[in-house]
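2024-03-11 09:14:02 INFO worker-7 job=invfold-0412 stage=load source=structure_tokens
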């Protein structure tokens, strides 16, 4: 940055107690050692097993991929900072974090909406499911999800780029996000804060309510419909609802009170950017018998070799 602007920002630590910082670091490494390979196994299982060729599993593999990418945005820098004791991040690195957090987060929200569309057609129009949710349609929904996330994220980065930073350079969290960066700008940012609130806060709430209404209607449809396949369809909808709450709950908390600090911001941010992304596909897997059987089958075949 030029014109007297900062070339780096200072990130806050997760805890001021050194022992707790080390504990967080051990937790992160342990979490990645066990959960990260599990998400990769989900993707490999779906790709390798021909019995998991349904669109629902195609979307799940993409969800696992997005969550793997999302969980790699902030933790590497966090682990390096914990070990080195250096809490700085460059301006370019800060914008890169911000871009990928919103790119992958927006893409995942769009993918969850695509998964809801898939379940709607499967439950409400089962006779037309094969002709409506085709492979090209699935690819179109996934590509559209990534494109929507990119559009959402790049629009925020473009609005932040012109901001001057010439005062304090300490961010109030352990990662870079729009709320922390805008609060440090040396200019009146009220209108920009309002735009960001709508773009990240209200849009997230709207999608959350829409998904809850749609899955609630699907559950009612399943419970009042024929008995065949009722249990499986109901379990799938409940799993999707759990993932929606896990994905949207922290995001709504973080982006619906923009530019005001609350005591739990760092803890919610830690769960939102590190823990929950890797847990989403695992929750889906543990509640789906077909995937569990396919994973054991794949692991047995690998052990034979």
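2024-03-11 09:14:09 INFO worker-7 stage=emit residues=305
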């Amino acid at each position: 940055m030029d014109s007297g602007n900062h070339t780096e920002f200072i990130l806050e630590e997760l805890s001021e107690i050194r022992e707790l910082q080390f504990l967080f670091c051990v937790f992160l490494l342990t979490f990645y050692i066990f959960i990260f390979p599990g998400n990769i196994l989900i993707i490999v299982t779906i790709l390798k097993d021909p019995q998991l060729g349904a669109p629902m599993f195609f979307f799940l593999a993409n969800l696992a991929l997005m969550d793997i990418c999302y969980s790699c945005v902030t933790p590497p820098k966090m682990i390096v900072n914990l070990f080195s004791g250096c809490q700085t991040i460059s301006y370019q690195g800060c914008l890169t974090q911000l871009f990928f957090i919103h790119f992958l987060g927006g893409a995942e929200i769009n993918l969850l909406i695509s998964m809801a569309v898939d379940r709607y057609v499967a439950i409400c129009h089962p006779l037309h499911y094969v002709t409506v949710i085709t492979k090209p349609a699935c690819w179109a929904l996934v590509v559209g999800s990534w494109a929507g996330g990119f559009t959402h994220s790049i629009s925020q980065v473009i609005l932040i780029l012109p901001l001057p930073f010439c005062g304090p350079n300490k961010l109030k969290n352990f990662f870079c996000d729009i709320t922390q960066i805008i609060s440090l700008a040396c200019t009146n940012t009220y209108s920009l804060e309002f735009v960001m609130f709508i773009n990240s806060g209200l849009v997230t709430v709207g999608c959350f309510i829409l998904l809850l209404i749609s899955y609630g209607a699907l559950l009612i449809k399943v419970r009042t419909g024929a008995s065949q396949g009722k249990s499986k369809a109901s379990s799938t909808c409940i799993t999707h609802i759990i993932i929606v709450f896990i994905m949207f709950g922290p995001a709504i908390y973080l982006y619906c009170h923009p530019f005001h600090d609350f005591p739990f911001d760092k803890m919610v941010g830690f769960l939102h950017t590190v823990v929950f992304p890797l847990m989403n596909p695992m929750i889906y897997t543990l509640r789906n018998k077909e995937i569990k059987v396919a994973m054991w089958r794949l692991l047995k075949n690998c052990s034979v070799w």
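2024-03-11 09:14:09 INFO worker-7 stage=report msg="The chain has eleven helices and two strands."
2024-03-11 09:14:10 INFO worker-7 job finished
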